[in-house]
Amino acid sequence: MFNNLLNLLYPENLTCIFCDEEIFDNNIYSTCDNCYKNLPFIKEKVCDRCGDVIKSMATYCNRCQKSKTNYDKARSVFYYKDEIRSCIKRFKFDGCKYLYKPLAQFMAEKYKEEKFYCDVITYIPIHETRLKLRGYNQAELLAKELSKILNVEFAENALLKIKKTMPQAELNYKQRQTNLIDVFKVVNKSAFKNKNVLIVDDIFTTGATIDNCASVIKKAGANKVFALTVAHTIIEE
Ligand SMILES: [Zn+2]
Ligand SMILES: [Zn+2]
Predict the structure, then answer these.
(1) What is the pTM of this model?
(2) What are the structural domains, with CATH classification, of the chain?
């Protein structure tokens, strides 16, 4: 009985998701103090729209000054580097599905910090053949958990990916422009109509995918569209 009680207080395999060290005090991020201190949180000034770090006093980065996006604001918790990079790779490709829980907790903090106040949370969908192959959509897991933590409505299967695409990273600029045409479709307009919507994904790279989804969500009648990702690729200026 004493052992049962101990297990309840200190569940086994309560280890840091980054270094595997045992954690003794229960913490929602499943991260030891030492790793937490060293995580690449984005604390610098960022573009008010896309979330790229900017060194000037301007409100928007060069790219956003030149062209408008369909999403209103995109933010990420971390830079896509170091422990976060390997953590996301484990989450997506090594079957470490459980990582959605601590990662969603980090996202919930950022959501509150940015005062997003959305009516509904959705995610970047993946094509159904990819879903069958991987078994889960990492963005969907994050979005669902985030909606639970924040007590915000969750739009499941309202936005679909109806065409297979090449990974954006493997394409040149011109191919990227056409790669995403007619790829996403809103199949449940009432999920977004007159609402402020949050789109969730794991990584923000150029924002092209998020922007495409924001476009169809706005065409479905959404008011504002925000985006929140775990990590943001560092763009060299
Ligand atoms: Zn650690
Ligand atoms: Zn920008």
Answers:
(1) 0.92
(2) 1-38 (no CATH), 39-232 (3.40.50.2020)
